[in-house]
């Protein structure tokens, strides 16, 4: 509760910062974009994880102004880093409450307009649980924003309960495979986990979705994914979430 109070004053006092984690195209072995991940530099507690404060920000509805700030900041950064010329995309996590707002589509369009970022350079990450809360509304918001070129990723796919019905009905672009799938492949008898992974990749691709594997921590995992025809990957092996200045120099040395 104390944290909720601090959160209130933190919105608008520059205590939030976006970190950026690279997303790599596996078949070309090159950068395809970044995922923006929020960090809170608490004056007393130091870095507070979004796992701790995003739920509080949702309860207190502070996620609404915070979510708008995240979108504007991420779009602005993508313009600064010349994403359009480089053919890169910025991925932004959207919260359930934010996505349900009647003016969600307008607020995204506004962020694009103000920053000058073309819609096709923005990817919004949604989770299954949030789109399942109102699949009709989700479909409308996605379709409207797709007219502006915005892409959509289903985040944490396969974590916890999973419903394939979302894949039947929503016009998504990417499927982000939860890192638990890769972790399962490290077990000594990993025949079945590997089959699951391979089958997921092929199912997604037949549905016209690009697969992004999360949590790649070793070169072997990267090779395995390439072998299975997985499109893209993200994880500590390729790069950690890092502050803007580090991400920016990373981009130049990696290019
Ligand atoms: O960066 P990582 O540890 O620590 O993120 C943890 C969780 O917080 C992830 O589930 C991620 O989706 C979520 N998260 C990170 N940044 C944001 C953000 O900008 N907005 C929302 N809604 N969630 C975020
Ligand atoms: O839920 P979402 O996928 O948005 O959250 C991304 C989370 O995954 C962040 O907390 C980020 O720090 C974390 N992450 C990114 N790469 C790796 C990785 O290679 N291994 C592990 N364990 N976590 C990772
Ligand atoms: Mn994400
Ligand atoms: Na994820």
From TrEMBL:
A Pfam family of the record is EAL
Q: Which InterPro entries match?
A: Cyclic-di-GMP_PDE-like (IPR050706), EAL_dom (IPR001633), EAL_sf (IPR035919)
Entry-linked PROSITE patterns: EAL
- Alphabetized CDD domains for the sequence: EAL
Q: Where is the EAL domain?
A: 1-255
- Segments crossing the lipid bilayer: none
This protein is called Bifunctional diguanylate cyclase/phosphodiesterase
Organism of this sequence: Deinococcus lacus
Q: What is the lineage of its organism?
A: Bacteria, Thermotogati, Deinococcota, Deinococci, Deinococcales
